Amino acid sequence: MATMREVAAAAGVSPKTVSRVLNDDPHVSPATRERVEASMRELAYVPNALATTFRSGRSPVIGVAVPDLIDPFFAAIVTAVEEEALAHDLSTLVTSLGHDPSRERTVLESVLRRQLSGLVVAPTTNDHAYLEAWAARIPIAFVDRAPGRLEADAFLQDDHGGARDATAHLIAHGHRRIGFLGDSLAAPTIAERLEGYREALAAAGLPFDDDLVALDAATRPGAAEALRRLRAPDRAVTAVFSSDARCTMAAVPTVTAHPIALTAFGDFPLADSLTPAITVMAQNPAALGRLAAARLVERAAHPTRTLPRRTVLPVTLVERASCRV
Amino acid sequence: MATMREVAAAAGVSPKTVSRVLNDDPHVSPATRERVEASMRELAYVPNALATTFRSGRSPVIGVAVPDLIDPFFAAIVTAVEEEALAHDLSTLVTSLGHDPSRERTVLESVLRRQLSGLVVAPTTNDHAYLEAWAARIPIAFVDRAPGRLEADAFLQDDHGGARDATAHLIAHGHRRIGFLGDSLAAPTIAERLEGYREALAAAGLPFDDDLVALDAATRPGAAEALRRLRAPDRAVTAVFSSDARCTMAAVPTVTAHPIALTAFGDFPLADSLTPAITVMAQNPAALGRLAAARLVERAAHPTRTLPRRTVLPVTLVERASCRV
DNA sequence: TTGTAAGCGTTATCAG
DNA sequence: CTGATAACGCTTACAA
């Protein structure tokens, strides 16, 4: 591990000159440059990125924190952030938050100490007041879910409208008793989607019935049980709106075994190849990630510029077969 | 951004004392500790992780480089590395290499400059001689694919045996003309799986026919075309062995539309819910990632210990319906 | 128990 | 065009 000092000594110049060569400073004579480069090769010199980064006080890294990488929705966000970061010569420090809200703060704070250039987070909690001091120093962008008790850029999808339209779609197909499938209403996105579902019912003059809301459906057994209850004679739903992709995927085995009309929030791989193919309200995770990362870069470059805090992307209905079962 | 020096000044002590408080050094009087902690709160002091890291010369970070995060196989590897890293108080710097081999070197070298504690890589090239100097200083573990021209730890699955057994399974179901579906033979894993396929044919006294090997099938159009050719009267295969999950997923729409006996290398989400459900030879990406990360930690702790270079995990046949179509 | 000095590898500043 | 010096924030020796 040769250092710059050693290279300098070998080339008979000062460290600063080596630094200049490294950074393509034009104020170096060709001869000197030549000599320095030879020494670098000789000693197999590799700059210590840690030192540079420390010196500059800011790490050329964008942090990305999402609940879970296995979920293709978040994987797509991360990938998009990575691509956008790459375009700006930044790397990405990826961290999974897990689905347990109590971990969020610890994890984010430990990431933030690294003097990142920015942070993209798909949060798992509703209260981000603890980030206020951080947000003052480094740009933070929220994706998928809005920040709570904190002013920060947010890139969201139209949870309310999307859920409303997806539900209305089932109503248009003649359904009157429509179940709501979800994980937990603690997540603001899911709560929003429930609101959209209610609005669609109301608009059609249908009653909202708490008993038709089935939660804890993010696992296969959970989804199976939820669907069983919804289908039981006392509830007798003829259609289901699934409020997120994890639940939908968990429900797939049950739905393919005992078909029921289904519309789901969030697309997922192979949704179009199932029997029945699942009708979904498609989000755009890649756009979310890309926009968020781009915003961080922009905030870093123009700290005072005024920009909209909240960007809501539309969702689009992809009609397949499951809504017509 | 208060620094340690400022906290020290505010508390009327030396920076070293603040450092001691921070690191829970017992040689600090309770009174002093109290005073220092008060100042830290007052100034909202947060340690600069960059400085600590620089001073220690090594970043408490494990790098993870995989071709692509969207692929659930690699997402599972990354997640497992993350979990194992977390257990050792390390973070993870995740980078996608892309599927273009020419990017690998640049990306890995830029990651390695950061003085990582270790690197897990699922490579896209066959020649890793350029990593030799790095491998001497920081532990590098390969997953999924073995390193080329480099001595390094590798955690692999039984590509050869798994492909052989998956093909034999089709033969056992009475098939005599079996196609091989793949992306590119440049990947050593795929080449190995082709060998396994050949071995199974040979063991059954069946001829190997180059025309039954269909490549470039990692996209939906590619897979559709490959299957069309294999099925054409001049090839007339009655069964297909798909050599990797990306190809299998790409082939799904064609296979569900025009069923053909299929066995695939690599499991994937919802494979069991398709019609037909896909019979797969399941890998264990989580184990791959976990073992690799654990190995890095072990190498770092015991640089001289002798450990096996190559660990090959078994794959397991998950029989579903597609092999009996 | 606490402090002083020195340095990790790089770069900014300012002289020459 | 080149170099001396200092500094980034923290910690390891070594003293006191």
Overall description:
By secondary structure, the first copy, chain A, is of the alpha/beta class. Chain A has three domains: 4-47, lambda repressor-like DNA-binding domains (434 Repressor (Amino-terminal Domain)); 59-157 and 285-314, Rossmann fold; 159-283 and 317-324, Response regulator (Rossmann fold, 3-Layer(aba) Sandwich). The first copy, chain A, is 43% helix and 16% strand. Chain A is built from twelve helices and twelve strands. The first copy, chain A, has helices spanning 4-11, 15-22, 30-42, 49-56, 72-87, 104-112, 132-137, 159-172, 188-203, 220-231, 245-257, 285-301, and strands at residues 61-66, 91-96, 118-121, 140-143, 153-157, 178-181, 213-214, 239-242, 261-265, 279-282, 310-313, 316-318. In chain A, the strands form two sheets. A six-stranded parallel beta sheet of chain A has the order 2-1-3-4-5-11, with helices on both faces. The first copy, chain A, has a six-stranded mixed beta sheet with strand order 7-6-8-9-10-12, sandwiched between helices. In chain A, helix 1 (4-11) packs across helix 3. The longest helix of chain A is centred in the C-terminal third of the chain and has 17 residues, at 285-301. Chain A is elongated. The model of chain A has no long low-confidence stretch (mean pLDDT 95). Chain A binds chain B through residues 1, 44, 46-51, 53-54, 57, 59, 61, 68-70, 72, 75-76, 78-79, 82, 91-96, 110-111, 113-115, 133, 137, 249, 252-253, 256, 269-270, 272-275, and chain B through 1, 44, 46-51, 53-54, 57, 59, 61, 68-70, 72, 75-76, 78-79, 82, 91-96, 110-111, 113-115, 133, 137, 249, 252-253, 256, 269-270, 272-275. The structure holds a DNA duplex (16 and 16 nucleotides). Chains A, B: Residues 2-56 form the HTH lacI-type domain. Chains A, B: It comes from Herbiconiux gentiana.
